[in-house]
Amino acid sequence: MVLITGGAGYIGSQTNKNLVFSGQSTVILDNLSRGNLSSVKWGIFEEGDLSNVEHIRSVFNKHNITSVMHFAAYSYVGESVNDPEKYYYNNLVNTLNLLKVMREFNVNKIIFSSTCSTYGKPIKIPITENHHQIPLNPYGMSKFMIERILSSYASSYQLKYVILRYFNAAGADADLTIGESHNPETHLIPLILDVALGKSDSIKIFGNDYDTKDGTAIRDYIHVSDIADAHILALEYLNKGGKSDAFNLGNGNGYSVKEVVDISKKITGKDIKIKKIGRRNGDVDCLIGSSIKASKVLGWSPKISELEDIIDSAWQWHKLVNS
Length: 323
Prior knowledge:
This protein has helices at 10-21, 53-62, 77-82, 84-104, 138-157, 188-196, 224-239, 257-268, 292-298, 307-321, and strands at residues 2-5, 26-30, 44-47, 67-70, 109-115, 160-166, 168-170, 203-206, 218-219, 221-223, 245-249, 255-256, 274-277, 286-287. By secondary structure, the chain is an alpha/beta fold. It has two domains: 2-169 and 222-249, NAD(P)-binding Rossmann-like Domain (Rossmann fold, 3-Layer(aba) Sandwich); 188-219 and 252-321, UDP-galactose 4-epimerase, domain 1.
């Protein structure tokens, strides 16, 4: 069975669904502090926290876990800047707890949910996996430190891992069973769609003086179901004896915040007011990733690559859940 930590979250729940539909059995471990129980429609659910080693042991005792997909983490850049201790305990220490129990039960395969935030300020676009990693905020640093820990464990304890560094996850499942919903919500596309639905008055644009074509930050958006598929391919890769490695997951195309707003206006047919405010700590001008390595090694490529299609899928889900 595959253990999915944080499997009630946005990406974890989509991966859980895709895994089950591919024929895998899953166990979802989540404390529901930021996940949604309603998104756990497949597999076996175990409510619990990775800070509790005994509870992790009980899950491994109860189920025949053969591999782990590790999504459980706090992931708000601004919050990590304001409260780094919270992030290092939850993301870093809790991962050590998980790895400890994995060793005890001789489970040696893990797919780790990392982030492009580990790269920091890019010196070359698109970003490849051998780009320097100098995180600019505690969230990115916590993920980077876990990456280094996995490398150490692989050397000393024969752990096998795949690190997947996402760019900006977005969109909703094709049959509209899973979409993006955080509390609080900080991601651009759902916040824009909240304005289109009349749930908010305007969308905040953090900084309009970046070194970009329109002054707003540029990001690479990747559909959540494509990210989920990459996890399945990564597990297959390890099961076939693939060596531990790290891969970017992105589309290789960048869109500014203003462009995302304009495309959303077109798709929703709604006027979306913007409110310009100052930059956030830890944000960079442009993040665009190269996924050539994932394509060559894992056989992965995005199936939903157009931003219009990604936003439209999110819009259909948001309309459904707010109807």
